[in-house]
Fold each of these.
Amino acid sequence: MGKISGLLSGKPVDKLLTQEMLAKENRRKIVKLFEEIGKSVFAANREIIHERIPNLDRTLFMKFAIRVANARADYLILALDIIDDDKRGSADDIENLAKARRTYEELLQAFEATERLIERGYSDVG
C-alpha cells in the first residue's frame, strides 16, 4: 500500500492508496505515455513524408495503382501461360514467375503503405 502526503490546493493530504488505486494510476500514466508517443510519431511521419515526398497527388497515386494492377496482370499471365501450354514449366519459367510475384507483392505492399500514410494524415493528397 502506498501513501500520499503533502498539500493539495492548500489543504493537507494524507491518504493511503490501495493496490487497485495504484494500478489505476499506473494505467493512466501508461495511457498518457502512449498518447504522447503517438503524437510524436504522427509529427515525425508528417514532417519527414512531406519533406521527402512533396509531390504526392491524385495523379501519382493513380499511376501507382495502375502499376500495381499491371504487375498483378504480368504475374497472372505468366502463371496462366505455364498451365495453358499444359506443361510443368521449366526452371526458367518458374523463376520468371517467382520474380513477377515478388515484383507484384512488393509494389502492392508499397501501395498499401501509401494508402495508410494518407489514411493516417501523414500526407495530404491534392
Amino acid sequence: MIAHARFRLVPLVAVLVLAARSSPAQRVEVTGFGLVAGPRSAVLHEGVRETVEGVWLGAVLEVKVGRVLVSGTGLRGTLDPVANAVRRDGGEQGVLVRFEPRAGFGVEAMYTARAFRSAVGYQRWDILGVGAWVSVPLGDPALRAHARASYLPAVRVSGQPSPNVALAAEVGASATPRGTPLQIRLTYRFERFDFPGQPTARLEEFDRIALEVGYRMRR
C-alpha cells in the first residue's frame, strides 16, 4: 500500500515543480534550520496507557522556488518512560512538498519514516499524507502564525495492522527579525492513529513541540 502511494506521489511532485517553473517571476529561497524537539508517544490499549517522552535534535532544509516549497527534515534522540513503558531510541526523516496558489495558503503532500528501537524490539512507521496549510500575519509583517491539517491515507506499521483512521494537525508561529537573514519558529504537531480491534481497539498518539532557528538565503 505504501509503495503504491509513493508511486502516486511522484506525478504530484512533478506537477508542483512544473508549476513553479512556469511562474513568470521565480524567486529562490533556501533556509537551513537547526531543530530541538520534545516528542511524546502514547498508546492506549485494553485500558492501559503507555507513554514515553524525550528530546530529539535535528535539522530542516527548505527550498522554495516560486510557489513551490520542498522541505526535508531529520530528527533523532531518546524517549524515556513516563508510564508502563520502556526506554527507546527513536528518530524520523521526512519530506514535504507544498504548492501555494496564493500567498498564505497551500496544499501539501508529505512522507515520513519514523522508527523506534528498544530492548523489546524495533518498530518502523511509514506515513503518507495530504493536507492544507494557511499562514496569517500577527499584526506585524515580521510575525506570522500558521496552521496545518493533514489526512494520512497510507500508514504502515511493522508488526501490526494499518490504522483505520489517521489524522494530523499542526499550529505554530514564526518571527523574522528585520534586517537579518534569521528565522525563528515554534510549532506544535499532533498525530492520532486508530487501529482496528485485535481483539480490542488500539489508539496511538504522537505529538511534539519544536523550536527551530534558521538562516535564509535568497536569490
Amino acid sequence: FDEMGLGTRFAEKPAPIWRAPEAAFADIQALGNDLEAAARAIAPVLRDIDGRLGSDACVRAHGLSGSGATMFALTDDMPSAKLLSETLLRQHTDWWVQPARFASLDEREGPR
C-alpha cells in the first residue's frame, strides 16, 4: 500500500445518511476501497471473486471489505442473499460464504 503511494486521499468524513437503498448501493459501489490495488497485488484471486460477484444479477453492489480479508455483495433482500450464497457455495466449495442482514438505525433502536 505504502509502496504504491496509496492513501493520500484519506480525510475524515461524516457517515452518509441514505434515504433509499438505491442511493446506498450506488454510493457504496462508487466509493471503492483504497486498499484494493495493494490487496489484489498480494492476492490476485480477488479479481476472480470480484468478477463473479459483479456478474450476478441479484448483486446490487460489491467490493473488498477492509484490507482484503473478505469481499462482500449487497442484494435487495435476504431471499436474494441466501440464493446467492447457495449458488456461490455450489460453484466454489472452498469459499466461505455467509448471508447476513443489515438493520437500519431505526430498526436497531426499536419502536418509538
Amino acid sequence: MIFHCGGVSPVLADPFEDAAWAYEAGNCRAAVTLWRPLAQRGDARAQLAIGVMYREGHGVAVGPLRAHMWLNIGGANGNERATELRDRLALHLTVAQVLKAQAMARDWAGAHPRGGVLARLGALSARADAGSQFKRGALHDAGKGVLQDFAAARNLYHAAALRAHGPAQRSLGLLYRRTRGVARDDALAANWLGKAAERGDAPAQRLLGEMHMRGEGLAPNPVRAHMWLNLAGAHGERAARAQRDLIAKALSMEQIATAQQLARRWLESHERTTRLVEVEGVRWRLDRAQKGDVDQMFLVGMMYDIGHDVAQDHTEALRWYLKAAEQGHVGAQYNLGAAYYLGYGVPQNYVEAHKWFSIANVTGLERAIVNRDIMTKLMTSDQIAEAQDLKRDWMARHQTR
C-alpha cells in the first residue's frame, strides 16, 4: 500500500486508517505519530508505511537506510509489498549501506520483541545440523518471512559449508561473487563453488564453468570451462548445455576431446556419490542398449553425441554407434562416417569416413552417397581403393547376418 499526501478525511475508522487519512489530508507528521506505535507492536502495514515515508521524506527527513530498515521489518512480518520495495531500494544503495540498514533492523528487532520478527525462525533456530543452518541462511539471504540479514546468512552458510554441505558451499560462493553482504572476492567465490561442484552440485558446476570461461577468480581455461559446463548439463542444468556448445565453437577438436575426457574421468571417480543421469527414462535406455536393443544403442550414441541428459562424450557416442552399426543400423553407420570425417571422438580419417558412408548407402540410406562423393574429392586414388576394400570386407563379413 502506497499513500499520497492530499485529500479530505471522512469518518475515522481504526488507528491504522486514522493515520492513513491524516497522511492523505497532508498531515504527514501526524501520520507518522499514529503509525509508529502500531509498527512497534508488529503491524506490517504500518511498518511498510513508515518505510515509504522515510524513502520519500514525507513527515520525516529522507532516510534511505531507515527506509530500508522499516521495509525489511515489514517484509519479515509477511508484507510482500515491503519486501518488493526493500529490494528495489537496495539497488540504489552500496553494499555497506545495505549492511548498515540490516544491522539497524536487527538491533530494532532485539529492542522490540513485540515487533514480531524474532519469532519467525521458530523451531528451526534450535537445530544446529548443516541442513538447518543452510535453510536458515537461505531465509536470511532472501529476507522472506524473516529479516534480510546478509551477515547472518554468510555466517550460517559458512557453518554449513564447513560441514561439506554442497548447496551451502554454492550459496557462500555466490555471496562473494555477487557482493551480497560481503566484498566481492572472486578467488573465494571460486574456492567455495569448486567445493560444491566437486560434491556434484549442478548449479555450482555451471557457475564454476562460467568463471573458468571468463577468468573470474581463476585463470581463463576454456577446456575446464567446457568440462564443468558439460557436467552441469548432464546433471540437469539446461543453460549449461548451451554455454558448453558455445564454448565448443572456439575450441579445437583436440581441446574438446580433452574436456570430454576430463568430464568422463570425473564421473567415473564420483559415480558412487552423484547421479550420472537425472532424466527419467535415460537409465532404461542404457539398460536396453546394454541388453542388445540396436535402436536403443543408436539413441544412446545420439545422447552422448549431443550431450542430452548425459555428459557429452564423442568417444562414448562412437562406441555405441559402432555397436549399432555392426548390427546393421544405418543411422549409426551414417553417423560413424560423419564422426570420422569431422574427427569427433576419433582422429579424422577420410578412408574410414568413406567406408561407413558407402556401407550406409548400401544398407538403405541414399543421402550417404552425397557425403561419400564429397569424400572422394578429398582423397587420393590409393585412399579410395583402400576404403572400397574395407567396405567389401565389412559387407562380406556381415552378409550372412
